[in-house]
Amino acid sequence: MGAAFLGLLPHAVDRAGISRVFAMTLAGMVLFFVLEKLVLWRHCHDGRCEVHGAAPLILIGDALHNFVDGAVIAGAFLTAIPLGIVTALAVLAHELPQELGDFAVLLNEGFSPARALAFNTLSSLTTPFGALLAYFTFEAVQGALPDVLALSAASFLYIATADLIPDLHRRVTLVSSVSQLLLLLLGVGTILLIESLY
Questions:
Q1: Helix (H), strand (E) counts: the chain
Q2: Among 30, 47, 146, 178, which has the highest number of CB atoms less than 10 A from its own CB?
Q3: Domain-wise residue ranges, the chain
Q4: What is the Rg, in whole angstroms, of the alpha carbon atoms belonging to the chain?
Q5: C-alpha–C-alpha distance, residues 56 and 103, integer Å
Q6: Is 21 buried (19+), middle (13-18) or exposed (0-12) by CB count in 10 A?
Q7: How many CB atoms lie within 10 A of CB 45?
Q8: pTM
Q9: Strand ranges for 57-115 from DSSP E
Q10: pLDDT bucket at 101, cuts 50 / 70 / 90
Q11: Mean pLDDT lowest among 7-16, 49-58, 90-99
């Protein structure tokens, strides 16, 4: 959330009006909701997600997701180096648990550990392709950059509101609540620090 509110959205608003940026962010959140409903967008953090017997669809969805992540990172770096760093860190923070979850789902689907790892790795290789395509496309069409930043923010906000926050609310002990708050503040603080350095 910090990357969206403290990095992506302010940079997008600087380049385009607030109405355009907020409309695109809202459209992005609706789009990600629809994609997730169609099982093209996979966010499974601990292997407890629903399995539909469709490992190929999971892998295709993950490959598309990783491709978009690459485009998001490239668009952020084209806007500003610190924004690129913040965005890459935010993507990494949500990708690691997602990939572990996808690995667990593939194992549950009957893949051997080696085969699940190989296919998960292959789907991750779409990230650099997304980054390269975005880099060369966005260089030519700078006017679309605010929309890309708004969609990037929408993806982070959707992940936070649909997956991460509900998962955090499942653990309600005092110790887990305090540690969650501290980690949340650490993440926001890291983004503030990176943004303030540049």
A1: 10, 0
A2: 146
A3: 2-197
A4: 17
A5: 13
A6: buried
A7: 19
A8: 0.70
A9: none
A10: confident
A11: 49-58
